[in-house]
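Cross-posting from the chemistry board since nobody answered there.

I work mostly on the small-molecule side, so proteins are not my area. We synthesized 2-acetamido-2-deoxy-beta-D-glucopyranose and want a rough idea of how it might sit in this target. Sequence and SMILES are below. Is it possible to get a predicted 3D structure of the two together?
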Amino acid sequence: MAKFRRTLLVATAVAAVASAQQQQQPPEDTTQQPEGLHALMLSAGKLYFGTATDVGNHNDEKYQAILAHQGEFGIITPENSQKWEVTEPRRNQFVYTTADTVAEKAQDNGHLLRCHTLTWHSQLPPFVSSGSWNASDLTDILTTHITNVMTHFKGRCYAWDVVNEALEEDGTYRESVFYEVLGDKYIPLSFKIAAQADPEAKLYYNDFNLETSPKKADGAERIVKLVRDAGERIDGVGFQGHLIVGQTPSRRALAALLSRFARLGVEVAWTELDIAHDFSSAASNGSSAANATQLEQQAADYVSVVGACLDEPRCVGVTVWQFTDKYSWVPLAFPGRGEPCLWTATYTKKPAYDAVSKLLREAAANKTGVSTSSAPTLPTPSSISGAAAALSRGGSGGALLSPLLGVVGGLMAMFVL
Ligand SMILES: *[C@@H]1O[C@H](CO)[C@@H](O)[C@H](O)[C@H]1NC(C)=O
Ligand SMILES: *[C@@H]1O[C@H](CO)[C@@H](O)[C@H](O)[C@H]1NC(C)=O
Ligand SMILES: *[C@@H]1O[C@H](CO)[C@@H](O)[C@H](O)[C@H]1NC(C)=O
Ligand SMILES: *[C@@H]1O[C@H](CO)[C@@H](O)[C@H](O)[C@H]1NC(C)=O
């Protein structure tokens, strides 16, 4: 964990140093306001703003310039390279080349890792999905996989998505190889193995459409209780947030959803946020590029989602599933949908980026009591301190966050020096 703490320290310090430098600039210079969603997220009292990324993006210089930009992102999720088909393609053969490359890039950039994912029905190697296992065999396979992968990345993951997408839309369990052989017991079993493999990583259940399907949200609540009732540790629920422009629930509804889970005693986060235009709708009239109206609606929807995280003290942060349309999975997975990210395919910031940025500046100003009516405030060491204090007031979740708060405290000490 020491390594992980150092990484956070670097990431936080980079953002704070950047803002401290900006503070020394003449007040009339408004072009050098605090840059970056992560820096703003910290000053708004949250732990991070992050993005999914992977080795396929490593040779794109424009992309890398934004990814490495000071304060834009504080944490990354490997989009594919930690999935089972990549890390254990054949039984007991573990391959970490790609995931290690992503982890090293993250370290170079001062980014933490949000690690993804362990027990999931999809992107499974054939040896798992097409085997005819008995319970004892599949338990061995799960134990070996989770233990090996988590041990390899131990100390580098802020959190792991331990079980991913175990639910159908109606809230019943998905018919995966895991469910067929082990029943719902595979869920607490996965958390049990994970807790033993890395006692310090936050252990998450992660799923999509919890935002729009009440029965699926009921199912996720059932999973939290199932794991707890089995005596195992679950620290968080990840809301993927793969949403559609104009069909995104309101900030109030989303905040209520997050709060419902926070009341169960887990932390929550947006883990895979993207908000796609539905170009197949009749209204789009055959166009496959968003017009100004659609871009404004997308901005409003992003504000609802990020705002809901601001509204729930136990929401720790937001991760977008790629930051540029150039590399979004959406048009490939859902033909007719597209342009879901904060940056265009040619790396222009969209209205959604500006709206999220403005929201976070306002939230930061509210925390520090400084008006933003004229110039936005900068994330300063004192606002980071305020954020830490606010987080530690966020109920018993403060206990979960205490290692991180210790680091923020350490950062304060650095600034005093
Ligand atoms: C499970 O299957 C394996 C062969 O794959 C066998 O050796 C083992 O005895 C079986 N265990 C049980 C409990 O049936
Ligand atoms: C943008 O597209 C939407 C949906 O296709 C349409 O309803 C709207 O009139 C368009 N607005 C502008 C300003 O072109
Ligand atoms: C839809 O597209 C067609 C062909 O581009 C155009 O002639 C028509 O005016 C469009 N309709 C609307 C409602 O924008
Ligand atoms: C800031 O505080 C004002 C007044 O309480 C409130 O209306 C506004 O929604 C807050 N903004 C954010 C981003 O939290």
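Reply from a structural biologist on the board:
Welcome over. Reading the output above for you: Strands lie at 48-53, 75-78, 112-120, 157-164, 202-207, 236-239, 242-244, 267-278, 315-320, 337-338. The domain at 2-21+34-416 is CATH 3.20.20.80 (TIM Barrel). Happy to explain the token format if needed.
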